[in-house]
Automatic annotation (TrEMBL), chain A:
Record's GO cellular component terms: cytoplasm
Domain PTS EIIA type-2: 4-147
InterPro entries according to UniProt: Ascorbate-PTS_EIIA_comp (IPR051351), PTrfase/Anion_transptr (IPR016152), PTS_EIIA_type-2_dom (IPR002178)
Species of origin: Rouxiella sp. WC2420
PROSITE patterns per record: PTS_EIIA_TYPE_2
GO biological process, one term: phosphoenolpyruvate-dependent sugar phosphotransferase system
Lineage, top ranks: Bacteria, Pseudomonadati, Pseudomonadota, Gammaproteobacteria, Enterobacterales
Identification of the protein by name: PTS sugar transporter subunit IIA
Any one GO molecular function term: kinase activity
Subcellular location: Cytoplasm
Highest taxon above the source species: Bacteria
TrEMBL record, chain B:
A single BP term in Gene Ontology: phosphoenolpyruvate-dependent sugar phosphotransferase system
Sequence ranges assigned to domain PTS EIIB type-2 in this UniProt record: 2-88
GO molecular function annotation: protein-N(PI)-phosphohistidine-sugar phosphotransferase activity
E.C. designation(s): 2.7.1.-
Top enzyme category: transferase
Species per Swiss-Prot/TrEMBL record: Rouxiella sp. WC2420
Database matches in CDD domains: PTS_IIB_ascorbate
Protein name, UniProt field: PTS sugar transporter subunit IIB
Keyword Transport (UniProt): yes
Tagged with keyword Transferase: yes
Transmembrane segments: none
Alphabetical list of Gene3D superfamilies matching this protein: 3.40.50.2300
Protein keywords: Phosphotransferase system, Sugar transport, Transferase, Transport
Length: 147, 88
């Protein structure tokens, strides 16, 4: 089911980014281009980072930036950015981040479905480790197709 | 029945994932609890027996009265299992 959300145009691999803000902007780009979010969504993510810290860096190597539905979500969606050299999100325990999954959700069935498939991938120890190391499109896509 | 509240910044992404994992672990342990997820500001006015969230989030919930558990890694299910076996 993740393949339905993480289509080829929403998966991007870069060598490096100019800091965490750049990583957030790059992961927002395909969702902005598709009209799934408005530019204020990205600003809301920056604002909550400033207020609450990088709480959305949920595990070593993995960030899941998102804001609330009313902060600029037009349609539900996901994007995935892989940063080969890793990027620091000011998260003491979980930096560097390699995988940035941006989430834009509206409460309801689709949200539930999207999150539960992500949870399955993230909670399988072997596949989670594979995801953090999957620095090529075929490797990432193999995991996306599996969940 | 004990109530567990999973807390994250926005109450819809990571807390939801952790809620699903917590429910699964409670089942594995053969225990029962009411589990839900919410955002930080709602959590401050919502009563629960156990609060779980990332360290950053949980620090601002810890008033000395609440039972709070902070995690560095929200996907660390072994740690969550340990918390639940000791506190349910």
């Amino acid at each position: 089911m993740l393949a339905k959300w993480l289509t080829a145009d929403r998966v991007k691999i870069v060598e490096q980014t100019a800091g965490w803000r750049d990583a957030v902007r790059l992961s927002a780009a395909p969702l902005l281009a598709a009209g799934a979010i408005s530019p204020c969504y990205v600003e809301a993510i920056f604002a909550s980072h400033e207020k609450l810290g990088p709480y959305y860096v949920i595990a070593p190597g993995l960030a899941m930036p998102h804001a609330r539905p009313e902060e600029g979500v037009i349609t539900p969606g996901l994007s995935l950015l892989y940063v080969k050299q890793g990027v620091h999100f000011e998260s003491e325990e979980n930096d560097p981040v390699y995988v940035v999954v941006m989430l834009c959700a509206i409460n309801g069935e689709e949200h539930l479905e999207m999150i539960s498939h992500l949870a399955e991938l993230f909670s399988d120890e072997d596949d989670f480790q594979a995801l953090i190391k999957a620095d090529t499109y075929p490797a990432l896509n193999a995991l996306i197709q599996k969940y | 029945m004990k109530k567990i509240l999973i807390v994250c910044g926005n109450g819809l992404g990571s807390s939801f994932i952790v809620e699903m994992n917590v429910k699964k672990i409670i089942k594995e342990l053969g225990k029962e609890a009411e589990v839900s997820h919410t955002d930080l500001s709602s959590a401050k006015s919502e009563a629960a027996d156990i609060y779980i969230g990332s360290n950053e989030i949980i620090a601002s919930l810890d008033d000395g009265k609440r039972t709070v558990f902070g995690l560095n890694n929200l996907l660390d299910n072994a740690k969550i299992k340990e918390i639940l076996s000791n506190n349910l």
